[in-house]
Design brief:
two-stranded antiparallel ribbon, seven-stranded mixed sheet, alpha/beta, globular, Rossmann fold, 11 helices
Length: 261
């Protein structure tokens, strides 16, 4: 059963674009990109996927379920067809949506992910977040200090701590950590089966240094999207949109608006 997704909207006119974040992310992470891409010509919706941000918590974290959520949002907003861009986990949701209902997706942008199963090392991160005692924490800096011994990378901690929300009764995680933990084997994979009709207009943007977009990974795209275009952004890894924002925006704009580029 689809859930009602929370979203942030940028721009009021033009062709619509839906942006889907990655694992542990939120629509807020993509606000800057969404604002830039709206640019008075495009209506951009940055979405919180289920069990993330302001969207409902539910035990099911399958890709078909998450794709159904996005379709339901499109129906609610009266969008019969839209461009869709997804990063990492969100890219897999976007691919699933395009494969299941290609008539609903005008253009597909997949950011630094492929339709393959990846090894993962999220167990330590999930355990650290789940076991963190939030009682008595008055600022995110306090939570940061407690997480540091288990998650030494400050950039990763700061990213995760964006999911820690202050309430009248203290702090709580916006993430449904239990459901994410139980679903990890599903999330690092990709549903197999019929590839569906060829979408045609698909762009796969990756960081040239990313371990998620090796030549072998990108080769796996072609059975699903035979006409896909590929663009590697130099001096960038998995967070290509944050590491090389202008090159990323230029690549996406050229694909979404070829007559303007």
């Amino acid at each position: 059963m689809p859930v009602q997704l929370a979203y942030r909207e940028f721009g009021v006119a033009g062709e619509p674009l839906i942006i889907l974040h990655g694992l542990f992310g939120t629509a807020t992470n993509w606000s800057g990109v969404a604002r830039q891409l709206s640019d008075q010509r495009r209506r951009v919706l940055a979405v919180d996927l289920r069990n993330h941000g302001g969207s409902p918590h539910t035990p099911d974290m399958s890709y078909p379920a998450m794709a159904a959520d996005v379709r339901a949002l499109m129906d609610d907003l009266g969008l019969p067809r839209t461009a869709v861009m997804g990063h990492s986990m969100g890219g897999k949701v976007a691919m699933r949506l395009a494969l299941e209902t290609p008539e609903r997706v005008s253009r597909l942008v997949v950011v630094d992910i492929a339709p393959v199963t990846y090894p993962h090392d999220f167990a330590t991160i999930l355990a650290a977040m789940r076991d963190l005692s939030l009682e008595g924490i008055e600022r995110r800096s306090g939570a940061d200090a407690l997480l540091e011994p288990l998650i030494p990378d400050q950039a990763v901690r700061l990213f995760l701590l964006q999911n820690l929300m202050a309430t009248g009764a203290g702090f709580r995680w916006l993430l449904n950590l239990e459901a994410i933990g139980r679903s990890m084997a599903t999330l690092v994979g990709f549903p197999t089966g019929d590839a569906g009709p060829d979408l045609g207009d698909a762009l796969f943007v990756s960081g040239a240094r990313s371990p998620y977009a090796t030549p072998e990974h990108l080769q796996a795209v072609l059975p699903y999207f035979p006409q896909a275009a590929f663009r590697a952004i130099a001096a960038a890894g998995h967070w290509v949109h944050a590491e090389q924002p202008q090159a990323f925006l230029d690549a996406v704009r050229a694909f979404l608006d070829p007559s303007v580029a």
